[in-house]
Design a protein that fits this description.
Elements: H1 8-28, E1 38-42, E2 50-54, E3 66-70, H2 72-75, H3 78-90, E4 95-101, H4 114-119, H5 129-138, E5 142-148, H6 153-158, H7 187-202, E6 207-211, H8 235-250, E7 257-262, H9 278-281, E8 287-291, H10 311-328, E9 339-341, H11 351-363, E10 369-372
Parallel strand pairs: 3-4, 3-10, 4-5, 5-6, 6-7, 7-8, 9-10
Antiparallel strand pairs: 1-2
Pfam family, one: DUF4015
InterPro entries: DUF4015, GH
Protein name: DUF4015 domain-containing protein
Length: about 375
Amino acid sequence: MAYKTRTKKHLTKKRFITAAFVAAFFVFLGFSFPYSGIVFEYLPGVAGVLQEKETVHHIKTPNEVRGIYMTSWVASTDSIRRGLVKIAEDTEINSIVIDIKDYTGKVAFLMKNQKVKEAGSSEDRVKDMKKFLEELHSKNIYVIGRIAVFQDPYLAKARPDLAVKRKDGVTNWKDYRGMMWLDPCSKEVWEYTIAVAREAESVGFDELNFDYIRFPSDGNMKDIKYLHCDPALTKPDLLENFFYNLKKGLNDLKIPISADLFGMVATNFDDLNIGQVLERAEPYFDYISPMVYPSHYPKDYNGFPNPAAKPYEVIKISLDSAVARLLAASSSPFKLRPWLQDFDLGANYDAAMIRKEKQAVYDAGLNSWLMWSPSNKYTVEALDK
């Protein structure tokens, strides 16, 4: 006796119809289904089970982004993070940058993605991340998720096959601070980074920001080896491969992605031996954040004995150069959203110094900036109400 076979399409259709009848039956019995922003989807292969697929809400990028940085440790404690949220409520701040994956390589909240679970890198640090993002959205605060990429001592130790090596090709290389790095050319590292980013978007981050997207520095560069890199390609070529694949892997998410670059990338046309060239990164990101901290510029930069003491001049020179270069590349200078410093290094950064930084941004024809304080203590007097 011959039996008719039913296609997967027909079976799926029948399952959805069955689910609809089940829902209608409960309504008939008097059960109510209050709107919760959840779409119910049939779980194939499990009879009678409906899978919840939560709707993700995002805030549109403000025309003028004024942001502060929040570590995941601060985000994990309501009583502490409340102070930073209040700054956003009381001042011009309309955005907060929160660590998703920090310099340790640990991910700030538990993730369901299989690649992340296999790595064992996610922890229950910010237990209410989704709820916290919803709270920020309710206050119309734009939330940027920061992901430190290639500086990752956790994964480098857990997966030494993915790490930057010493010349012997076996021992993990470390910089002068003892930090281990992932090989910037490893496709598995790229896929892992994309997996972390995609899950971050799914809990409500409005933008994904990538830091440490460079080759390592500040270590013994004569004793370093990249097992995954093609020696025939330059560092800018190799990094551009990563930028291309990152954009391709996240393009369907429809939220902005941004890149943190060394401040001197704005004025240098070489790659600073770290692979970063402004024109090679710009096409792949919606926003570029050069870290134009005056304290990080070398002595006698542009004739300044102590660049940290000249915040306006250093930042204005840097951003004028970056603006001109993006215009020459037929791009928009409004892609530029520099990181400014709110910490003491090389000079005392009081309200007057920070206001000089902001003014340099505006005088360069730009309107957005992010404020970096590693301690998350901000000079509120430097912020407009």
